[in-house]
Write a structure and sequence with these properties.
This protein is mainly alpha-helical. The chain contains 13 helices and two strands. 64% of the residues lie in helices and 3% in strands. Helix 8 runs parallel beside helix 11. The longest helix has 39 residues.
Length: 348
């Protein structure tokens, strides 16, 4: 049997959302390659090699904003740039970001603490003036790079995929893609890919609980900055971000992650599972404010005319009701005559 007319718009809309998702993912890959090439060329031309990662992150975020804005226009739905990127303007954005940063910091501390207790960390310090300049530079790089990653993986494409196949399937698909893309990093292992997929699940839950990237951005930034700048450990296999503090971990791979860092340690799986529970627990108010649909009363509006049957019943009741009797007038006389007082003596 042919589908009914009511199902055709929904099916066509899902196909449109799926097409927008595929196009946006292709744009992400092209933008990442173009941004890296442009940053490399400018860094070599103007002798800005330390600034190359920051330039690449800025170019990548800019290209994402341009491409996603064009795709949003093609979807025939008007929205400002902040909404397109997944950064809605609201009064709790700062608190969401801070909560995410606190959870990210706690995750890294929990992942590094067993290594510190086991004595597997070898720490050195570089306190030259240039190291502090590089520290600030890398801090800005992490801030822009993590925002760009969240926009790419939990921003416009993720929402289009949710509209096409639903939130559960979309979350699984984006987490898998997020982990597989990190498989090309230096010193990546099967364990690191699995843990990165689980981290992608954590970041996706952050969006699902708030319908914004503020929480996930803060979490992602604090995770990378704490890992690379505060503890001096590799961040997804990259060691060039460790400046003032530089740390090498020795010991079992399930605990240290080897050259890839704690993101390849199996113990980090436990950390991420705990983080998901904590995130869900502390985002109840945000989930209520930003994700639940308002409750609509199951009755007709008060300003609408009542049903005809109800009007007929009221008219019939008024017609069958007997007319009220006229009120009787009652005169109440005083017990004591008006001309005498109660204290006067009685006459014979």
């Amino acid at each position: 049997m042919p589908p009914s007319e009511s199902t055709l718009p929904a099916r066509s809309d899902r196909l449109l959302q799926l097409a927008l998702f595929i196009t946006s993912m292709a744009w992400i890959l092209c933008s990442q390659a173009l941004a890296a090439h442009a940053a490399q060329g400018i860094a070599l031309r103007f002798f800005l090699l330390p600034e190359r990662p920051l330039l690449g992150a800025v170019f990548f975020l800019f290209l994402l904003a341009v491409g996603f804005s064009m795709l949003q226009a093609l979807s025939r739905q008007s929205a400002d740039l902040r909404s397109v990127l997944g950064l809605p303007r609201r009064r709790t954005s700062g608190r969401e970001w801070t909560l995410g940063a606190a959870i990210g910091w706690g995750c890294v501390v929990l992942a590094v603490l067993p290594m510190a207790l086991a004595g597997t960390l070898q720490i050195t310090f570089w306190t030259a003036p240039r190291s502090f300049w590089l520290l600030l530079l890398n801090l800005a790089t992490f801030a822009i790079a993590t925002l760009a990653e969240e926009v790419a993986f939990r921003g416009f494409p993720y929402r289009r995929l949710i509209a096409a196949i639903g939130p559960v399937a979309a979350t699984i698909a984006m987490s898998l893609f997020f982990g597989l893309l990190h498989a090309f990093n230096s010193s990546a292992t099967r364990a690191s890919v699995l843990i990165t997929m689980l981290a992608g699940l954590l970041f996706s839950v952050a969006w699902l609980r708030t319908h914004g990237l503020w929480l996930g951005w803060g979490l992602h930034f604090a995770w990378n900055a704490s890992m690379g700048l505060i503890f001096g450990l590799p961040v997804s296999g990259a060691t060039e971000f460790s400046t003032v503090v530089q740390t090498r971990a020795f010991g079992h791979l399930w605990l240290t992650g080897g050259d890839y860092g704690p993101e390849a340690a199996l113990f980090t799986v436990v950390v991420l599972l705990i983080a998901i529970v904590v995130l869900v627990r502390f985002t109840r108010d945000y989930a209520w404010d930003y994700t639940y649909k308002p409750i609509v009363a199951a009755a007709y509006p008060m300003d609408a005319p009542p049903p005809a049957a109800h009007v007929a019943m009221e008219q019939q009741a008024q017609q069958s009701r007997p007319a009220p009797a006229a009120p009787a007038l009652v005169q109440i006389l005083s017990v004591t005559p008006q001309s005498r007082s109660a204290n006067d003596e009685s006459k014979p």
